Amino acid sequence: MGLSRPRIYEWLAAFREGGIEALYAKPLSGRPRKLDERAMRWLHKTVTTKNPQQLKFEFALWTRAMVRDLIAQRFKVRLSEVSVGRLLRELGLSPQRPLARAYQRDPQRVEAWLHEEYPAIRKEAKRTKAQVFFADEASVRSDYHSGTTWAPIGQTPTVERTGARFTLNFISAVSPRGELRFACCPGTLTTAKFIDFLKRLMVHRDTPVFLIVDGHPVHRSRAVKQFVASTQGQLRLFQLPPYSPDLNPDELVWNHLKRHKLGRLALSGPDHLKRHAMAFLRSLQKSPALVRGFFQHPTVRYAA
After folding, report:
1. Residues 56-73: pLDDT tens digits?
2. Which of helix, strand or coil describes residue 136?
3. Which candidate, 161, 184, 182, 158, places its Cα nearest to that of 172?
4. Within the chain, where are the H helices?
5. Which of 17, 59, 262, 280 has a CA that sits 20 to 30 A from residue 38's CA?
């Protein structure tokens, strides 16, 4: 087995003095940690619950370099970026693409929406046999690109954007049942255009509609409130918490359209953009299972 005679004698001597337990492998202690358990807990809590800008950093994402600086400021301990990465993995953390959320967002307001307000809306919808919709507006631009492109190995490619871009505005509404309604809105969204969309949403419906929207000024205008009141309860509007687009399932419709459809096309003009956008949305209307799948995203599963 390739063992030397002196090593055999060492094992025999250890066995005579301490028995079989003396031959068990002993863990290597290695270099002692520079951060104790209390410091490790503080670091984990800080990285997982705080934004770097709250600690006077200029960048909003935790990088290894920023965590290294944080440890140096807090504990006067100098670590390399490699050591910081190893330390973060020991804490159960990994580099991930973050969700963008506004710092003005009120967590208590969001909690109230998730556990009190929306459950009440759903309960009332069930009592009145109303159908719940989530609505959103979006701009589709010709210079939005997704996916990958070919380039020399080791050289990150640069995609030049044209200044002659063109834009289309849409409004849509989706329901947990998989229903999708949409309309193209040339120019900016106005009160008249929004009311026209509401009228189209109500066509051929015998049951009430509960429409959940964001805090756009058009949604809160006097004319919209008057129109909703004129429906005598057939249409009711509810508002999402401020700065909470991630709670709206309709956002995922536009994310799907931009990333997986229009973002992969070479668009030649406004008519070309509109033709493809309308075609993709019509095909999505015919795929209620896919629309229902949007409601399985972790941030909007509450509405499924």
Report:
1. 877 778 888 889 999 999
2. strand
3. 182
4. 5-18, 37-49, 64-75, 81-90, 107-112, 118-128, 191-202, 222-230, 250-260, 270-285, 288-294
5. 59
